[in-house]
């Protein structure tokens, strides 16, 4: 399967899709909503990282996302690992 | 000729510990349920015999399979918490069951131990050396639990499960893929203090990748897809791991068995306990295709495809010669 173009926009759209698949209410997802408020816990974040790795063929580990508390922070950590 | 699971049995200690029994560790029922799916676990009494519990599970598996102890020539017990360091618990279990001088030994491969033992049983039958092999997973994880560590104490339970593996006539041959990686021992191990230590998030990551990847591999070896699985039974470490593996594989939710809410993580007892409970709940039918997968200390992992009681869907003439009371 072809790897999608690695852009910030593509990663953000994909991450929101994954969070919705994990059962998070899409309507509530904003860049700065806290993961606690959204009901996103550490295992969701780990699964999110794995999904991003498979989709974009990059290497984000659980430890890279460990301290992230919002979508903006998680995306920031992913962008660093992706060289974006 | 093929090999099938001819029966399963479970045995649990009587004492139940609910999540509320762990509030002194500054955790809560809500937190434990949300992160793990676990609501309660069983605890073997400090002076109780794990071999006795394993024997009960084995006796039920033999009864379910309709196989007599005299027809068993190989007994394998997967465990990391046996009553004695030596001899293997399988020897005592076999004797308690009245099995006369079988080949009997234990397998230690962490939470993957049962699948390693099952893989061995299948090889013994495929080689023509035996028609029935008794495989048990039995653990008293309370013996290696740091009861002051909330990250692991709430996760672990005690119990035993067993299956009878039998020669069968059918077209679907079992496919198994096992592996290990000693470079990651520090993620999950029992050290010199005999207490289990685990780095949970890294375990989660590896467990999902390896269980999903190897289940996919054995499905491909059998020429099957996720929709062909009648029941998917993954090591019951954590419901969130099982659901993540399910999503990755594309197995529908109604084909996934979970009993982690009732028994927690029982390591090598986990899969046979789940099979026995699924059987009790009438979720298995003769000829059902099972997907099994496990992951644990080592790291070690495994996945397999095998049928359930495929004997029963064939004619009487095709039954094994020494089929006991079947």
TrEMBL record, chain A:
<feature type="domain" description="Carrier">
    <location>
        <begin position="5"/>
        <end position="82"/>
    </location>
</feature>
<protein>
    <submittedName>
        <fullName>Acyl carrier protein</fullName>
    </submittedName>
</protein>
<dbReference type="GO" id="GO:0031177">
    <property type="term" value="F:phosphopantetheine binding"/>
</dbReference>
<keyword id="KW-0596">Phosphopantetheine</keyword>
<dbReference type="InterPro" id="IPR009081">
    <property type="entry name" value="PP-bd_ACP"/>
</dbReference>
<dbReference type="InterPro" id="IPR006162">
    <property type="entry name" value="Ppantetheine_attach_site"/>
</dbReference>
<dbReference type="GO" id="GO:0017000">
    <property type="term" value="P:antibiotic biosynthetic process"/>
</dbReference>
<keyword id="KW-0597">Phosphoprotein</keyword>
<dbReference type="InterPro" id="IPR036736">
    <property type="entry name" value="ACP-like_sf"/>
</dbReference>
<dbReference type="Pfam" id="PF00550">
    <property type="entry name" value="PP-binding"/>
</dbReference>
<dbReference type="InterPro" id="IPR020806">
    <property type="entry name" value="PKS_PP-bd"/>
</dbReference>
UniProtKB/TrEMBL annotation, chain B:
<keyword id="KW-0012">Acyltransferase</keyword>
<feature type="domain" description="Beta-ketoacyl-[acyl-carrier-protein] synthase III C-terminal">
    <location>
        <begin position="219"/>
        <end position="308"/>
    </location>
</feature>
<comment type="similarity">
    <text>Belongs to the thiolase-like superfamily. FabH family.</text>
</comment>
<keyword id="KW-0276">Fatty acid metabolism</keyword>
<protein>
    <submittedName>
        <fullName>Ketoacyl-ACP synthase III</fullName>
    </submittedName>
</protein>
<comment type="pathway">
    <text>Lipid metabolism.</text>
</comment>
<keyword id="KW-0511">Multifunctional enzyme</keyword>
<keyword id="KW-0444">Lipid biosynthesis</keyword>
<dbReference type="Pfam" id="PF08545">
    <property type="entry name" value="ACP_syn_III"/>
</dbReference>
<keyword id="KW-0275">Fatty acid biosynthesis</keyword>
<feature type="domain" description="Beta-ketoacyl-[acyl-carrier-protein] synthase III N-terminal">
    <location>
        <begin position="105"/>
        <end position="182"/>
    </location>
</feature>
<keyword id="KW-0808">Transferase</keyword>
<dbReference type="Pfam" id="PF08541">
    <property type="entry name" value="ACP_syn_III_C"/>
</dbReference>
<dbReference type="InterPro" id="IPR016039">
    <property type="entry name" value="Thiolase-like"/>
</dbReference>
<keyword id="KW-0443">Lipid metabolism</keyword>
<dbReference type="GO" id="GO:0006633">
    <property type="term" value="P:fatty acid biosynthetic process"/>
</dbReference>
<dbReference type="InterPro" id="IPR013751">
    <property type="entry name" value="ACP_syn_III_N"/>
</dbReference>
<dbReference type="GO" id="GO:0004315">
    <property type="term" value="F:3-oxoacyl-[acyl-carrier-protein] synthase activity"/>
</dbReference>
<dbReference type="InterPro" id="IPR013747">
    <property type="entry name" value="ACP_syn_III_C"/>
</dbReference>
<keyword id="KW-0963">Cytoplasm</keyword>
<dbReference type="InterPro" id="IPR004655">
    <property type="entry name" value="FabH"/>
</dbReference>
């Amino acid at each position: 399967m072809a790897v999608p173009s690695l852009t910030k926009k593509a990663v953000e759209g994909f991450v929101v899709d994954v969070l919705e698949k994990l059962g998070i209410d899409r309507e509530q997802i904003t860049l700065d909503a806290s993961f606690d408020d959204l009901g996103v816990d550490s295992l969701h974040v780990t699964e999110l990282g794995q999904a991003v790795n498979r989709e974009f063929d990059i290497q984000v580990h659980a430890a890279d996302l460990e301290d992230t508390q919002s979508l903006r922070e998680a995306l920031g950590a992913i962008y660093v690992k992706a060289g974006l | 000729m093929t090999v099938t699971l001819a029966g399963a049995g479970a045995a649990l200690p009587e004492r139940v510990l609910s999540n509320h029994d762990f509030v002194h560790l500054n955790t809560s029922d809500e937190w434990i349920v949300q992160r793990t799916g676990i609501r309660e676990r069983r605890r073997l009494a400090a002076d109780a015999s794990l071999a006795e519990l394993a024997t009960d599970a084995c006796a039920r598996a033999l009864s379910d399979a309709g196989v007599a102890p005299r027809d068993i020539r190989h007994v394998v017990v997967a465990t990391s918490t046996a009553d004695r360091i030596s001899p293997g618990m399988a020897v005592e279990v076999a004797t308690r069951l009245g099995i006369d001088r079988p080949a009997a030994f234990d397998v230690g491969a962490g939470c993957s131990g049962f699948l390693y033992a099952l893989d061995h049983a299948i090889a013994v039958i495929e080689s023509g050396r035996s028609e029935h092999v008794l495989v048990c997973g039995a653990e008293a994880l309370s013996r290696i639990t740091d009861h002051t560590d909330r990250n692991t104490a709430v996760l672990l339970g005690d119990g035993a499960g067993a299956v009878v593996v039998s020669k069968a006539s059918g077209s679907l041959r079992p496919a198994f893929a096992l592996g290990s990686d000693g470079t990651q021992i520090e993620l999950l191990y029992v050290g010199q203090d005999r207490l289990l230590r685990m780095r949970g998030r890294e375990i989660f990551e590896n467990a999902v990748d390896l269980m999903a990847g190897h289940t996919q591999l054995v499905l491909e070896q059998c020429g099957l897809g996720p929709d062909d699985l009648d029941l998917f039974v993954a090591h019951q470490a954590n419901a969130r791991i099982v659901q993540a593996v399910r999503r990755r594989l594309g197995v529908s939710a109604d084909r996934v068995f979970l009993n982690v809410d009732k028994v927690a993580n029982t390591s090598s007892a986990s899969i046979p306990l789940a099979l026995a409970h699924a059987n009790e709940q009438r979720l298995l039918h003769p000829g059902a295709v099972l997907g099994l997968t496990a992951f644990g200390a080592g790291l070690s992992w495994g996945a397999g495809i095998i049928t359930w009681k495929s004997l029963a869907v064939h004619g009487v003439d095709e039954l094994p010669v020494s089929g006991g009371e079947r």
